[in-house]
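INFO worker-7 received task bundle
INFO bundle size: 2
INFO processing item 0
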Amino acid sequence: MRIGMLMLGVFVIALAVFLLQPSAGAQPAAQAQSVTLSIVSVYDQACRCYKYRFSGQISSGAANEYVTVMRQKCGYNFSTAVAGAHTRTGGFWEAELQPAPRPGFETATYRARWNGVRSEPVAFRGRLPVSLTKLGGGRYRVSVYRGDVLQDLKGRLVVLQRRVGGAWTRIQTARLVADPKAYAMYVATFTVRQRGWTLRALVPARAAAPCFTASASEKWVS
């Protein structure tokens, strides 16, 4: 009886070891595919414009694989192809976009796409163009332009600041409203009776988010 039980135990252990062994035709699990993306902005004297230089690498290291660069503007739910290139030996690739947006004014996210996978995002958040119009009588209209970015700025805060002792100090605030006479333009009005003050208008970071960064107008003297 003991011999029978012992033989049964040996058989079970041997079967377990056999099941744990990889079969002759089994292959190791494939590594997840990936593609990388980096972006450098340069000024091209030939075209007198800025351009983006895209570069990266695919995980397989294969040559002659096509990589597409996709751009998604902030506020949009789709992306479009803006550049692409075939890989060389080692899986490295390079591409260019010309002309490209001026540094500090791009508001979009880029990804490289290869073989159905996408790279980590490279996001740019630009400044809002903030301008000033003198209306007379100490009144000033501040205009903020969002361009083709789909972000509603209605109700967002704009701050009037005064330069005092080398620092900008808040003196008034207002809420932006849509300008009925101009597409994608928002305005606010301030009144400053004092003369000789150095002023500027600022859209703070929280008011500019998520598509833009904090943005200020040029300074002026009341």
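INFO item 0 finished
INFO processing item 1
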Amino acid sequence: MTTEKDQHAREQLAKVLTGIIPSEKISEDDRMIKVLLVGNYAPDGQASMLAFQRVFERELPALGCEVRVTTPPRRLQGVPPDSRWWKWLGYLDKFILFIPTIALQARWADVVHICDHSNSMYVPWVRRKPTVVTCHDVIAVQAARGLVDGWTVGWSGRLLQRLIGSALARADLVVCVSHLTRRALLELRLADESRVTTVVNGLNDNFCPIEPGPAQALISRFGLRPEDQFLLHVGSDLPRKNRKSVVETFIALQRRAAEAGTEAPVQHLVFVGPELGPSLNDLARQHGLADRIRTLQDVTHEELRALYARATALLFPSLQEGFGWPVIEAQACGCPVFASDLAPMNEIGGAGACYINPHAPESMAELIEGAAGRLKEMRELGLQNALGYSTTQMMAGYLAAYRLALRARNPRVPAAHS
């Protein structure tokens, strides 16, 4: 990390802006770095990637960087998402029509930062400038190589992942968001180890506790009452998110409480994400619990904070993640976390999370019941753990990465101090 160096650069920049020292007295290492952020194609609806990009837009200027953002515009993709042409027209927008634009815009930059490795195919078109690519996970590459059970990838998907991998290897620096992602990337030989580093994600927004009253006011539109105790899940409906185990754990909690003649620790289950599929809806109906399960879409950031703050706990039995943002988001809001005992969840959750076997709903239910007496302690430990995932620390790591990429092209650029 380069906290001392970055603080020095920030102080020097402040002095220039206030006229205390003239700009010509600033060393080359302290001058403003011009960063072109390459974001994702909006119609793809990748909320987490858009949130990641916004962190850089918001924070880099304070570290002495001049920032511009470029994203592929929607030109051809005017068909409904369920059309067979939707994917292919999106590919044309992203990987054909956008190329002249990004190549032209890269001329302005000192460093080009491709915020999502899925867009690594832009690397050859901006190679005149140092390139940094953030790798969030390699799950799609693993699936394309037949390494993920139950995930079959078609020929076009396999070709896409090969193209992404070959382009990724040409980046000046690949920044992984977790130690697990770095290990997996190197195992797949997607980039030379000398060009791979890790900057652990920080929180992507101001996640922090909300008092019960304001939190309840924010979530009342979802039909949740002040007395409702609910288990929360945040994420998509991809199979690896393991929503089936979430529903089965909720069912087990209700059954165990009924058999024991006691009240279950939670009476409701809330999903933030897409609607449940037919099989999970049928499962809930078979156990008479369909009316106690909600799925919420179009949730604002403040509403998500409130849901974390009001939830009895977050259940996150994911089978694969590159990082697992909901774990630290929940902890930062004072929500107890039950997460898979798998990396990276058990690396980032710290002592504040309770780790579970994601394949064993009955065991998960037992652990949630048993933790009832220490939820307060889990909240406190989780809040403490979340402090280690600051945006400031993350941005300092990326500033060091930019300088490293610049130095790789031009050894005369002063090295960042560690």
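INFO item 1 finished
INFO post-check item 1: Confidence is low (pLDDT under 50) at residues 9-28.
INFO post-check item 1: Residues 212-386 form a domain with the Rossmann fold fold (CATH 3.40.50.2000).
INFO worker-7 idle
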